[in-house]
């Protein structure tokens, strides 16, 4: 892969933000609304629990991390969709750009905007609700790494699905983070789920992150499974990333062979 071409895709996305600042609303506006709303909800619930339980510590930390993953997934999907909507997708491949370099540029852009969004909501949570996302220390890094890898895998998979089924398949992509959050135990322990569906959490990397996060927030219950869980979460996230990338490339090759790529625009598919 040529890094200069990946950088070119990345810079193009940045120039789009510069030429139309309203695009920034898609990165920051929903994040700010979510964190403010959940901050007040957590504060209210915390007042009911008095000093026995801190909802802000448990809920707000999980929301900040999950929003980070969600924005990365949606960032890749939206950048891909915009190239389809503007019927600009084919123009890229009139150049020596390869599909993996194109994908690499979208992923790099999405990670950058995801990190910017994470920093913004972490500051808001600190200033308005007294929540310090750094209170878990260096363990924040492996948590974010697992979520980042899995979010990229989700974004690539959803883009491949749109590439295979057409732009209208975007409606299948938007609810995916919400569906995964149910089984991953983002807002509650996995043990809360009915036993019949609890096993699904074992194949979802974020489940290992949020179960571990709750152990960190409650000193004394870290347990022997903490490090093995992080390792399993990392391996699973990497497997999903490889599988999603492989699927995207296969869909691209199929569209080349069948000629579908020549018709790939918002009106024809």
Question: Can you describe this structure?
Answer:
The structure is a single chain. With 269 residues, the protein is mainly α. The protein is built from eleven helices and no strands. Helix 3 (55-85) packs antiparallel against helix 5 (99-129), helix 3 (55-85) runs parallel beside helix 6 (140-165) and helix 10 runs antiparallel to helix 11. It starts with a helix and ends in an 11-residue tail after the last helix. The mean pLDDT is 85.
Using brief descriptors, characterize the structure shown.
about 270 residues, globular, about 0% strand, mainly alpha
Offer a quick outline of the entry.
The chain is mostly helical and 269 residues long.
Secondary structure layout plus pairing:
Blueprint: H1 3-19, H2 24-49, H3 55-85, H4 89-92, H5 99-129, H6 140-165, H7 170-173, H8 176-184, H9 195-198, H10 205-217, H11 226-258
Helix pairs in contact: 1-5, 2-3, 2-5, 3-5, 3-6, 5-6, 6-10, 6-11, 10-11
Tertiary shape: globular
Question: What's the pLDDT, averaged over the residues?
Answer: 85
The major sheet is characterized as: none
Give the total of beta strands. 0
Low-confidence stretches: none
* Global structural class: mainly alpha
Into which percent range does the helicity of residues fall? over 70%
H/E series, N to C?
A: HHHHHHHHHHH
**Amount of beta strand:** under 5%
- Write down the Rg: 20 Å
Number of helices: 11
Termini separation: 30 Å
